[in-house]
Amino acid sequence: MPMDPKELHTLLQNVAAGNISCENAQAVLTGHVHEDLTLDPWRQARTTIGEVVFGQGKTLEQIRISIEELGRHHPVLATRICAAHGQALLDLFPHGCLWEEAGLFCLGADLLSADPKAPNSDVVIITAGSSDLPVAREALGTARFLGLSAHLVTDVGVAGLHRLQPHLPSLRQAKVVIAVAGMEGALPSVLGGLVKAPIIAVPTSTGYGANFEGLTPLLAMLNSCAPGVGVVNIDNGFGAAALAKKILAGS
After folding, report:
1. Would you give the DSSP letter of residue 250?
2. 42 to each of 4, 63, 65, 245, how far by Cα in Å?
3. Residues 6+ apart with CB under 8 A from 165
């Protein structure tokens, strides 16, 4: 069956960018490559977001096979990667990029380079506290992988709201704001009354017992009195960045 023109265009773009070898591209074009039917290598052409490997609960070998197969076609991202698996993946794929603090590993992109547009990025990711940083870093690394201009503002929650003031100019020029908060989850509501951009709220499992592992901030964010706040699942930094990509792709 002839390759879809969009798929072919994506394949050639990745060859030109050096993300896929000529040999792998030839194997794809001639059909001499084993395709795992559980993978979806052309999702990016359809949806703007390629298939991402969810690493939590998987063996190193399962993650390796998925990265190897998806990497034949386009850059690939793996999330929820533990430290031991991350180091092993870096040994297996020396040209990959590991961001251990974010639980991310990828081929074909640099997750660690600072955004040259910061603090005037299209996406600003903001945390209530330092304990929310792992989730915020997952969002930041995913946004960078998806080609978004993004930067991170940390530790400006309601316990010290005066710390938010210096960051208002960058927040007010952003096209999307991702607000990451645990405890009682009040930060997105505060931002909803200060900025014009849509706010993607990310509840985290940070907090004491009555936080209920993120359920309390989740419900608080869903009940926000500020309009224009949408909510993703608990600790889902990846989902927030993917939603930001969809919003900006349609704008």
Report:
1. T
2. 10, 18, 17, 17
3. none
User: What are 40-93's pLDDT values in tens digits?
Assistant: 766 776 777 878 899 999 999 999 998 988 887 788 999 999 999 999 999 999
Tracing tokens 């386009």 back to the chain, one arrives at 74
d(Cα 187, Cα 163) in Å, to the nearest integer?
12
Q: Give the DSSP letter of residue 208.
A: S
Omega of the bond leading into 217 within 30 degrees of 0 (cis): no
Q: How far is CA 153 from the centre of its chain?
A: 16
- Indicate the pLDDT class of residue 24, thresholds 50, 70 and 90: low
**C-alpha span between 127 and 110 (Å, rounded):** 22
Contacts by 195-201, CB closer than 8 A, 24 or more apart: 195/168, 195/171, 196/172, 197/171, 197/172, 198/228, 198/230, 198/247, 199/226, 199/228, 199/229, 199/230, 200/176, 200/230, 200/231, 200/232, 200/240, 200/243, 200/244, 201/229, 201/230, 201/231, 201/232
Q: Tokens for 80? A: 């929820």
In what helix (H) or strand (E) does residue 176 lie, and over which residues does it extend? strand 176-181
